[in-house]
Amino acid sequence: MSLAIIYSRAQIGVDAPAVMVEAHLANGLPSLTLVGLPETAVKESKDRVRSAILSSGFEFPTRRITLNLAPADLPKDGGRFDIAIALGLLAASGQVPIDALKDVECLGELALSGAIRSVQGVLPAALAARDAGRALIVPLENAEEASLASGLKVFAASHLLELAAHFNGHTPLAPYEAKGLLRQCRPYPDLIDVHGQLAAKRALLVAAAGRHNVLLSGPPGTGKTLLASRLPGLLPPLNETEAMEVAAISSVASHAPLQAWPQRPFRHPHHSASGPALVGGGSRPRPGEITLAHQGILFLDELPEFDRRVLEVLREPLESGEIVIARARDKVRFPARFQLVAAMNPCPCGYLGDSANRCRCTPDQIQRYRSKLSGPLLDRIDLHLTVAREGTILQRPSNEGMTTAEAAAVVAAAQERQESRQGCANAFLDPAKLHQHCALQDADRRWLETACERLGLSLRSAHRIMKVARTLADLEGAPSIERPHLAEALQYRGVQG
Question: 183 near 261, Cβ under 8 Å?
Fold first, then answer.
């Protein structure tokens, strides 16, 4: 038979749509035609495949060859289809049995010598192959990553000859057994190491319990970055679904192996980052920092130093938990359910309100500095906290407060209450269900309305105050929101300028 069909997977964002590689041999002058909307790297695969087949000692068909990558309207790029194309040609020419290819999918790039090279985005393809009920053939370097998809039969190979021997029954490949090399969690820094700052630690506990966004404002050297680095250790471990989402994003984003999986990511981009670097983009859309921080922390230090237009693109993903990158041909959707932690100085020199009284900034300079942050962006940050200077350099550190382990246990108990009540953290509560799960007494509701009117707070701010108050009640194990919870939540809105 001169027609062979083998399956592979494309990469569109964090999705892996199925691709059928059809190889047909016909009589006529020797030629090779590749169709199915291939991009440059895919078009070049015919030369890599030809050299790999000949270098491996096989016969390259001297007939009229047509290769079709279906569906035809799906863009294909990269060298991930090389193995499928090579096996399709070998099967169509009778050098590999066609029936052996019907229940497998292939990913991998070929070297001219026939060696198999690693590719990106293996984990999303592995999850999709498992759901389709097929086995997956991957390069040896990608085998550990593919094995994260539990229930999937993975075959790893380092050369085209190994695959040919496997399908011909000469030397069958054994299913790859995971070694657990990617499950290497790093210890989190301890909260007890932060000297003083009891109010900031309390706010950090509230932020972790409800997954609220935080803005820390204070002079240089007061521990803002130190506090932000302690937040990931307070959050509960990723569940299986969340861990797979994080691993799939890491798989798509880089050739590098997964690091510290399944820990929550902590991304810390520099303030010179561009809009596409932060939210993703490019002619072939790639995930940005907000997607790499999915299910984790996005820490933006020196917040006003970011370009204002760059910061404004955060407004939509902060609300929706995803980012859609539109191009002329299609749209790519990336998840972006991250927790924002930002830090800033109170003025250009950084010492406004400092106990040493070193600030020399004029009111106009302070106003211009703070105006770099728009009201709508600040409105989406639940906790606004001033981090003041405490003690002196020579003062001996004290061990007041909770350790990371103790605080994490309190946070876990609060999040269990939220999951059992509404199925999500308080910060992600849908506005339509807000009054159901954050109900207030009539007197407390009128008190909050009056306070918001006097402070000039928006309706979004009022809703976020209610969510923070609900988190405070959950930390205490209280069944309903009370006036002290509202009062404490309201005080966290006092920093925005």
Answer: yes
> Structure tokens of 64?
């009229």
Q: Are residues 150 and 220 in the same domain?
A: no
CATH number at residue 44: 3.30.230.10
For residue 61, the tally of other CB atoms under 10 A from its CB is 20
Same domain, 216 and 124: no
> Residue 422 is part of a domain; what is its CATH number?
3.40.50.300
The CA-atom distances, in angstroms, between 491 and each of 200, 382, 468, 469 are 13, 11, 11, 11
List per-residue pLDDT tens for the chain, 497 residues long: 589 999 999 999 899 999 999 999 999 999 999 999 899 999 999 999 999 999 999 999 999 999 999 999 898 999 999 999 999 999 999 999 999 999 999 999 999 999 999 999 999 999 999 999 999 999 999 999 999 999 999 999 999 999 999 999 999 999 999 887 666 677 888 998 888 888 999 999 999 999 999 999 999 988 899 999 999 999 999 998 999 999 999 889 875 556 667 889 999 999 999 989 999 987 788 899 999 999 999 999 999 999 999 999 999 999 999 999 887 677 889 999 999 999 999 999 988 888 777 888 999 999 999 999 998 999 999 999 999 887 655 454 555 678 999 999 999 999 999 999 999 999 999 888 898 999 999 999 999 999 999 988 989 999 999 999 999 999 999 999 999 999 999 999 864 43
* Same domain, yes or no: 342 and 446: yes
Q: Note whether 119 and 199 are same-domain residues.
A: no
372 token code pair: 């770099």
Same domain, 195 and 156: no
Q: Tell me how far apart the alpha carbons of residues 274 and 254 are, in angstroms, rounded to a whole number.
A: 19
Q: Last residue of a domain, which of 135, 152, 167?
A: 167
- Which helix (H) or strand (E) covers residue 413, if one does? helix 404-422
Which contacts qualify for 491-494: CB closer than 8 Å, 24 or more apart?
A: 492/203, 492/206, 492/382, 492/383, 492/384, 492/385, 492/468, 493/384, 493/455, 493/457, 493/461, 493/465, 494/384, 494/386
- The four Cα atoms 406, 408, 414, 418 give a dihedral, to 10 degrees, of -170
Cβ neighbours of 157 (radius 10 Å): 23
| Domains contained in the chain, number | 2
Question: Is position 139 within any domain?
Answer: yes
**SS3 label, residue 199:** helix
Could you tell me the residue range of the domain that residue 470 belongs to? 191-491
d(CA 401, CA 403): 7
Whether this model's pTM surpasses 0.85: yes
Residue 185 inside a domain? The answer is no
